[in-house]
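Pair request: fold both.
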Amino acid sequence: MLRNIVALTALIAIYFSTNAQSSVFVASNGNDNNSGSIQKPFKTISAALLFCNAKANADVIIEIRGGVYYLDSTILIRNGSYKSRSLTIRAFKNEKVIISGAKPYHLEWQLYKNGIFKAPLYLIEPADRLFCNGIILPMARYPNYDSTARVFNGTAADAINNEKVKRWHNPAGAYVHALHNGEWGGLHYKIIGKDANGKLILEGGWQNNRPSPMNAKYRFVENLFEELDTPGEWYYDAAAKMLYVFPSTGVDICKATIAIGHLKELIVLKGDARQPVKNISIKNIFFEQTDRTFMLTKEPLLRSDWTIYRGGAVLFDGTEHCSIYNCTFTEIGGNAIFLSNYNKDDLVKDNHIYNVGASAIAFVGNPAAVRSPSFSYDAFVEWNKMDYTVGPLTNDYPQYCKAEGNLIHSPGTIEKQSAGVEIDMASHITVSHNSIYKTPRAGINIGDGCWGGHILEYNDVFNTVRETGDHGAFNSWGRDRFWRSDRNIIDSIIAAKPGIELLDVVDPNIIRNNRFQCDHGWDIDLDDGSSNYQIYNNICLSGGLKLREGYHRAVYNNIIVNNTFHPHVWLKNSDDVFAHNIVTAPYAPIQIDQWGKQVDSNFFLSSDALKEAKSYGVDRNSLWGDAMFVHATSGDYELQKGSPALRMGLTNFNMNTGVELPALKRIAEKPPVRPLMAESVKGRSAVIEWLGAKLKNVETPGERSAAGLPDEKGALITIVPVNSAAHKNGLQKGDVIVKIKDNVVLSAIDLLQKFEKVKWMGVIEITIMRNQSLQTININVKE
């Protein structure tokens, strides 16, 4: 008996020696020749990872002590490079750990002239990002950086005109940034030099998969010595190996900490579908100061408008059961977190991601996994060459991964074709309880139908499409195997090959229990063949809900505040359903002669809206009236008991959107709450707000006479604040808006309702009566 006990004790000892949790420590004052204990920590994370190789079958934790860790090179973890059962890389006891992609330099400064200092600095590659005391400084640029400017923090139509170019002695190495001519994202060019006629030689423009000239108005140029004229700017002369800095006011450059970016990726997990990197967690770390990647963004994502760069501050490529939790990403030059190719059951949770150059989180598969792929808008595979097998060809794509509870704001600081969360060539991705705002384009984007099964739920997505146009807070494309740009061809294809529309989007995408808001587009925008969607229990606060041509979309139990349903160019036998929704304004159809399977049993907040819907032959059983929201003025759209909307089959739903982690919830912003249009018309004297100005109905003979109006139609402007969009567009107190596009404006509320149908266009023609004279002007609704 004693012998058995001794043997058992020995086996237990062996088990725990090989399977116990093991910790290894890293500290900025450590030494890589140390043992890795808390008393004798390593200095670098790379040394700790080498130590982990000896910890077979153990759960290893790399504990990093507080401090800034400037990496000499990207931390690369390959399949087979560690033997531990699981690996966690985390900050020790929540000490602040910063992993930086920059390198600090001690420089010998001397005054150059006019407040500009210079210092010799030898760099192998030209400098892209400079940080002074941890703060990013802009390159010398024209026009100068303006934190209040809407697009690119400052643009000018004359950024690269002939007079400007003549001033630049040697512009090689400078950059031109511009919006796409259609404002569908951004374009970026490197200046190679000047030709014999003094014209710029440019390389680039491949950052958008819908080719276009650069926008004539929204453009700027940077990295030019002649433009170094404002405090806070810098320029690096790569030929002379000389750094020039115009210090910000109050900064002693001789005492400042200067760091220059040199890495694009900080941590890379690299495996593949056959041998994935498994069970790695990254927790409680700050990731900062990587270089920009806009000139590397050139790989087309099938037929969507996107091109991408497969990189990020943290890159997962060929992983399983890996996670990144409670980390902070800021001043990242490109993507923050990128899951590329095969990744399964990974988790991105409770991170704070802001001020990043491209997308915050991206799930992007390998196009080699797609059957019969095409790579531009008008390209397609011929019918006799097409693979008609359902679903993917391989498993080399993100699947069953989650992005949960992340606070994301101000992504896309340089790359405008970007998103808070991007999904492309992936399946069963869950995006849940994220707060996403201040985005240049979509908050969440799905680039194609491959391969569906995504769940978007409980997200708070607002203040979106700030710098671009023709987009939504949520946007999708569905330019899959069946799709053509001519809907008549699509109709003939589906008639000949029923079911082809579901070859790629195998499982339905679900959009539920979200709150979306977009003032410059649609709250929910399903574009170009987006198919197989179930959309329910969402609150749309501003831009309404758009369904362009596609199949098998069921839209029900949504609340569309101050806007409406936008059906565009629907297809025959689409099987679409729009029912049991609350709608504020009249529908806004474009080229609709097919109304799907069902458009009925909705509840309208105005009689005119319902009347117009019935004129299309739909909504025969719908009603209108007061929906009896619990407290719409505070954003609570729960229906009270006895609401007539309940009789239309609507039900109350969970409206708890956005981040849940208390630390993130405390700092997360919320979308603005605006009065319901339906409430604004209670009483003719009600004042409304439009583009920051105050407007009212024309009500008295005196108001008619002063404006020179033939009747009391129109919306009278009573107050125009100096910084309002109305003022920036030249509107004045006393103007009466009598037409928006070709539609007569009957009243202030009528202006709002008509405006909601067309505001996505960005620039809108209006007719005003000013000083008893009609004038037609174009207004930019984003200015």
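--- second member of the pair ---
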Amino acid sequence: MATFADVADETRRLVSGLIDLGIGPGVRVAMIGPNSLDWVIVRLALGAGGAVLVAIDDLATDQEIGAILQRSHCRFVFCSGAHAASLRERYADSDLEIWRLDAATEASQPARSWRTLLAREAEPLPRFDADAPMMLVYTSGTTGKPKGFTLSSNNVWANVGALVVEQLIEPGDRVLLPLPLHHAYPQVIGLFTTLACGAAVVFPESPTGPHIVNALKTAGVSGIIGVPRLYTALVTAVAARISAKGAVVASVFRVLLSGSILAYRRLGLRIGKWLFQPIRKGIGPRLRLLVSGGAHLEPAVLWQLIALGFDVRSGYGLAETASIFTGNLPGRERMESEGRALGQGRIRIAESNDLGIGEIQLKGPSVFDGYADAAEANSAVFTEDGWFRSGDLGYLDEDSYLYVTGRAKEVIVLGGGKNVYPEELEKAYSDSPYIEAIALLERNGALAALVEANVATIRADGFSRVEDVLRVTLKDIGQRLPSYQRLSGFAIADSPLPRTRLGKFRRHLLPELYEQALAEVRASVRSEPSQADEALLKVPAARAVWGLLARRYPADRLTPDADLELDLGIDSLEWMALALDAESRLGLRLDEAVRSEVSTVRDLLHLASRRRAEGERPTEGAPSPVEADAATRWLQPTGTVTRVVTRLLHGLNRILVRVLFRLETSGLEHLPDDGPLVIAPNHASDLDPSVLAAALPWRITRRLYWSGDAGRLFGVRWLRPFLRAAHVFPVDGRLPAASLSLAAEVLKRGKILAWFPEEWRSPTGELQTFQPGVGWLLRETRAPVVPVLIEGSFEALPRQRRLPRLTRIRIRFGAPLGIAELSKSAGEAAEPIDLAAALRNSVAALYRRKTDQGA
């Protein structure tokens, strides 16, 4: 910890030492290193001495550093020890002088630290022109090659001075700065403004979550200078902590949060300051002020922070305007806007459309003079009358508050001429817990997306096919949007999407990353078999498994490197079918626990070899994966009272559905009177079970059983008696073997099973892929199956709608199909996945039959 007096003394003494070294007004000096007290003192000394700082990202590569040093013509570099050795080696034959930002010594060379430049006594500070450059800034490169430009002391002070007057930050405050100081925003607002207000700057040990949390609690932090991603993470963490306390606590929290928002909106009262004091104390005992910049703070996050009792301040600006230009200031706030222009700044909207949205143009003392050595760029970025063309889109309300709607330079122009503003649309497509991040781009005249999946959440919800979950999710969201804003395709990123240090997408990198992601999926061969792989395939157990895989999966995808899930499509249900095949044909048991041990074909071959070497043999008469008490409880015949309730529920549901949705049915004569039977309809709506039950006569319904999500339905205790009466048994997508085994037990008892083979409700109403689980059921039980087509339920209640429309619904029952008929359609060596596909074709044929009859 250093005091203001310590910093001031060392800064003044360093200025004298720098001048003796030849670093005075106008001299360009590079700095490369993490946030630290050393960085701050050297930076302040360079500014006080009139030198021009060229701040370089501490995470920049040697090539990036070299390019900036060459373009900026720096003769001096202050850097951390992590960069010193490589710079000395690379510039050994140049006149570049390299000095350390820390005092550590190197065995190969005496230390040349900034501290060795401290003069015994400070000399008077040199005079320099306040309009002369004080920093040379390079843009972060979101759309291509970074551009360099200078900012003067007057540019910077136009913003710092305006904010100091507002007293947002008070003397005695401690402000956390987790952002890298090489950016203009944290340097001007986080460092200069905080110090000018007489407040202390706090650097976390690193910009990671645990170190930020530790700094908030131990350093007495009262304010944060951050970016939207930090605050999004904060509210997400609060929500997760509340959810962990149970549904009741979470519901109460949401009600109180809504009340706090309402109190602020209607009355201007911040009741969250005392209402949520324990939560805020858990985040940071003194924390009150949250400043957001660098990007737009989403309204949902903004209002949650306000509701919790924080003083939230946001604004708009660019590095070219010394990082800020507008702000929501005390007594002049308009939340969800970016505030009004600071000081003498002026804003106008050029070439606005019918909604008043146009390019944001700026003029004022904080605006830069132009890009270095870029006459053509400067002629395009300034208007003839001297206004800076920001490249952003937005509008001004009647009181001159600014609202930013997008980036003009990032507008995607589609093949049909429609314009898409990616930032706004990305917010819509991100509205899913399964999507960590999504970036839109144009591809072949259409809209495509590169998706960073939240695999942990997808897995926790019981799904294994990441691609399928994302496809359904994106289609579902797309149905709420105009047709030209729907995706024509997507690719899954195998690493975090590329961003700048302030969280903006590096959009110029997206097309190449998209094609790479597609190429990885399309690649038929990852690598040539190695000698080790060839030796492995000579092991009988491995060779037998390879043969089994070759019969089940496409030859062009089967390689030792093939991913079981992404390349071969082995989800949890298909894994179960594969395991049954392996046990019946090879005597090899592949239980659910094994899935966590293997990810590629090679892993599976090694596992087979190891288990066979250990003498494993198939276990005769292995117990069903389903617990006995579960089967007994949910499949046992019901008592007289429950049967009466079942009949009443059936009758009530039948009346309601037939009246409200004018239900029409055909093909009921195909349903047999006795024996086991699978009824397999398409699935487009939450209404499907109710309308299907209403279509069936009592002779079928009294023997009919349904599967229900164990967490979604059976987690509600009071609902269980009604589920029992409705013949619903629990299934868990994370335990597919147990679920299918219980379904098979229904059929073995001679009952009727209603089974939705698509697994998910269709996001578009179109027929989806049938999962192989239904194929396994049919193959194992030899029960006949009736294909069913439900039409109109999607129009009545699609996934995104809460209340149904009262539209007509029709159900068509096809003729029963035996395993022989499905196998004939699928081929002689029909596997569960083939049987599922044949059944899907039978349901699809009911569409065509209706069309033919209509014609």
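Observation on the second member. The two ends are 84 Å apart (CA to CA).
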